[in-house]
Amino acid sequence: MTADVPRPGLRERKKQMTRQGILDAAEHLFSEHGYEGVTVAQIADRANVSVKTLFKYFDSKEDLVFAGEADVQDALCDAVREREVGQSPLDAVRVFLKDLAAADEHANGIEAFHTAFGGVPQLRARLLLMYERFEQALAHVLAEESESGAGHPAPRLVAAQLISLFRLVTSEEARERVASASADERLNALNAWIDESAALLAEGLAGYGIRTSASAS
């Protein structure tokens, strides 16, 4: 028998509601006007809080876009850590990505994130930092599991490949594949892209692009 988890107090619940209200306001405004077309003051006004209050919850406008980063990182690591017997880390990430895409089918899942924010110059560095953090966290999980010694390249190399699959789901090529499909088939198109990319990773790179004739001088 498990003990009941205590319900947060009124003060904490109000803080959670305020934080979520700010995030909801930002999401709506970003959707309507784009990231660059929205100011912090407009978000605060939409959420019925002051700019000072907004900055008590978020350090920057960028943080409003990446508010769920830690949750996604934890879920990704859990998917690999808790994978079924006989399942590889690659398969675990492939399934995780497809589940993430299906979670918001009408918005085309993770593809929608890149559509909204992937082309914003101010966010590119922050997006790369997020993927680097994902890679580090996943490498740690793999190193613990394999008991690799310090400095062994395998966990980090594998993590880098798995995160490359994660980031390239929102690449220009993936977005073109999704955009070329009908509205009803976009999720299937994204899933097919994930499966094909994972299959290529599984095959390895040794046989890819082998030159069969001398290049022209």
From TrEMBL:
Keywords per UniProt: DNA-binding, Transcription, Transcription regulation
SUPFAM superfamilies: Homeodomain-like
InterPro entries assigned to the protein according to its UniProt record, in alphabetical order: Homeodomain-like_sf (IPR009057), HTH-type_TetR-like_transc_reg (IPR050109), HTH_TetR (IPR001647)
Coiled-coil features, chain-numbered ranges: none
Gene3D superfamilies for the chain: Homeodomain-like (1.10.10.60), Tetracycline Repressor, domain 2 (1.10.357.10)
Stored Pfam families: TetR_N
PANTHER family, sorted: HTH-TYPE TRANSCRIPTIONAL REGULATOR BETI (PTHR30055:SF234), HTH-TYPE TRANSCRIPTIONAL REGULATOR RUTR (PTHR30055)
The protein, known as: TetR/AcrR family transcriptional regulator
Lineage: Bacteria, Bacillati, Actinomycetota, Actinomycetes, Kitasatosporales
